[in-house]
Structure formats: C-alpha cells, structure tokens
Amino acid sequence: MSPEPPFDAVKLALPHLRALKAYTPGLQPSEPGWVKLNTNECPYPPSPRVADAILREVGTDGASLRLYPNPSSRPLREALAAHHGVGVENVCVGNGSDDILNLLVRLFCSGASPAGFTLPSYSLYPVLVGIQDGRSEVIEFDRSMRLPIDRMIGSSAKVFFLTSPNAPTGVGFKTAEIERVLKEFRGVLVVDEAYAPFAGEDSVPLLARHPNLVVVRTFSKAYALAGMRIGYALAGPDVIGLLDRVRDSYNVNRVSQAGALAALGDTGYYGRVIATIRDTRDEFVRHCAEGRGWFTYPSEANFVFTEPKDGRGRTGAVVAGSAAAFLDARRILVRRFPSHALTESFLRITVGTNEEMLVLNQALEAWAHS
Ligand SMILES: *Cc1c(COP(=O)(O)O)cnc(C)c1O
Fold first, then answer.
1. Residue nearest to atom 15 of ligand 1 (CA)
2. Contacts for 98 with CB less than 8 Å, ≥ 6 apart
3. Is the CB of 197 under 6 A from ligand 1?
C-alpha cells in the first residue's frame, strides 16, 4: 500500500495562482537613519488634527474599538462628497486605493473581459488581473510618454486603468485629452489620481458628464497617511452601487475613518504641504535637467523620473543601477524599474524635504565624479 500523498496547498490552489508573482512593494527599512525617497510617501507629518481625532476616537480605554466601524464610512463619505462637489451616492471609501482598484478588477475583468492599462503605469494592475485569472490588454507608451488616445479608444478592454499623473514618470495628462478618451471608449475608464493633488488639473470635473469615468484617490500621498490605508472612488451611482455590493462590509476601520475625516478638514495645512512639495519638486527637476543635463520628465507628482548620466556622459540600465547602489551605500533609497526598456535607465526619486534633497544632490554629485 502506497503512503498517502502529503498535503499540498499549492496543488489544491487554483492553477492560475501557482505561477502568480505578488506585487513588489518598495523597501521599508526597519532601522531609522535612511533618506527614504523610494515609495512616494509624504516627507512631512499629517495634520496635527489627525492624531487628535484618533486619540479621541480610541479614548483612554479603547472601549470604542469593541464596536464595528460605520460600514459605509458614512461621515467620511459625506465629507468627501462635499469636498469634491459630488453626491454621497458618488463616493465609495476603501482600505487604501489599492482596495478600490482590486474591487474594480473584480467587477469588470475576467478571462473573457480584458482589463487595459498602459506600460509603464502602476505595476499593481497586472498583479490584480493575474489574481482574477483575467486577460490584460497592454498599451505601450513611447519615450515621449504622450497619451495614446486613439489606441485607448480602440481598445477592447471592458475596464481601462490610466494613472494620471502617471507612475513612475510623473507625466500628467490633460483633462481635455482624457475627455476625448471618455467620449469614445466603450468600457469603464478608471483614472487613478493618486498624485492629482500635486498636479495642475484633474478629472473630477468630468464626472458630471461621463458615467463611464471612475476617479480613484488616496490619502497615502498628499495627506501623509500611507500607514492608515484610506482611498476612495468617485463615480456614477451605478458603479458605486456595484463597489458597495462586492466590498467587505466593514472595509475601513474606525481609526482610519476618524483620521481621514480630520485630515480632510485641514485644507490650510495640506495646502501649505502640497505647495512646498511642488516647489521642491520643480527645483529638483531644474537641477537634474538644466543643472546636470540629465533627461528628466516634467513632473506633476511628488516624485521625479530622471535618467542619470555618469562622469563620461553615459546613460543606461547599468549606469542607473550604479547610481542607485551608490546612493544605497549612503543610506539614500530611491526606486528603479529595470523590467522595461523605457524605464530601466531611470531613477524614480520621491520629493523629500529640502534638507533631504540637499543630501541627495550632494550624493549624486559625488557619484557623477566617482
Ligand atoms: C501609491 C499609489 C496607489 C496606492 O495607494 P494606497 O491608497 O496606498 O493603496 C495607487 N495608485 C498609484 C498610482 C499609486 O502610486
């Protein structure tokens, strides 16, 4: 008699999951002392009102934590609706915008119902499609990074994810260009606006005219609340109704709801933080492009995508790797995207404080002369 085969969870799992590669998040060092410019977090703390609201929510004994949170994040939803000038029925809150993106893939994508996205863009989309065993339709940019409007319109995708401003390039797309897509594209267009608070324009005004638009926002970048996991979708009531049908019934915890609500109320504080980051960004772009003569995309986000040149004027994946390693050895973290020809020779550098950018600029100077 042959022995029973050992338990094999991977064999029992659905076949398409066996080869699935998880999303690779940027490094989060556990020790302090790093200049952390690799995951587009805000270099400044959130509004002081956030910690106050959280302490109030939890209380001295934590008793409120016995109770489930508001299942539809109702007070936050109302505040977001007022903030964007839309109705409560146009808002759905998620456990980070990644939660919302995941739900949108669940709603609209399968093996027979492709999800579209551009390359490069946010690299979570293909992972979410992979989890769903869905089909992808990929539209590649060229080095100009101009929006491929006609190819998007011609796409057979049922749902198309557009990151604007784009990641990891920082290039923002014009509202008028996005509207041209919306007028003719037959599927749902999701505009992932994680970085829109740093940009000159956004897609929210288009919601009133285009029921096939979903705008996705997050508190992780401009609101300095990546650790709280809050994002949201703005869309027509039909899409919001579908999201409400498939999301976890308590998808946003009590503490995060209270913190986000307080953050949203402090427009003065965040206006100053965003203005400072934009100024630092514009100065750093000039420094890279004009000061160093490095090819650098104009950025409408809180990061800069630049192609380093070594002391002999060479560029390429090896040069970018050498710059990143040099910075890493000096405890400065930046991000590389080596898997695609359009991105492999670049560094994506999050805009930090002015002090952090000074440390970075000195290190880049030392690298260029090394
Ligand atoms: C950071 C980022 C997100 C993730 O936001 P969370 O709300 O933290 O999940 C989504 N989309 C893009 C393009 C991002 O850069």
1. 194
2. 124, 231
3. no
Pocket of ligand 1 contains residue 41 by CB under 6 Å: no
User: Which residue lies with its CA nearest to atom 14 of ligand 1?
Assistant: 194
Query: Class for domain 48-266, per CATH?
Result: alpha beta
DSSP state of 301: S
72 pLDDT band, cuts 50/70/90, is very high
What are the structural domain ranges in the chain?
10-39+268-368, 48-266
Pick the CATH number of 10-39+268-368 from 3.40.50.720, 3.90.1150.10, 1.10.60.10, 1.10.10.10: 3.90.1150.10
Looking at residue 1, its pLDDT comes to: 65
Q: Are 220 and 194 in contact (CB under 8 A)?
A: yes
Measured between alpha carbons, how far is residue 368 from residues 287, 324, 326 in Å? 14, 12, 10
First-residue to last-residue Cα distance in the chain: 68
Strand residue runs (E) in 317-366? 332-333, 347-350
Mean pLDDT of the region 233-248: 98
**How would DSSP label each residue in 21-42?**
PPP-PPP--SSS--EE-SS---
CB of 192 sitting under 6 A from ligand 1: yes
What tens digit of pLDDT does each residue of 26-50 get? 889 999 999 999 999 999 999 999 9
Report CA-CA distances (Å) from 124 to 10, 25, 99, 119, 128.
22, 9, 11, 12, 6
pLDDT in tens, 166-203: 999 999 999 999 999 999 999 999 999 999 999 999 99
* Pairwise CA distance, residues 325 & 359, whole Å: 15
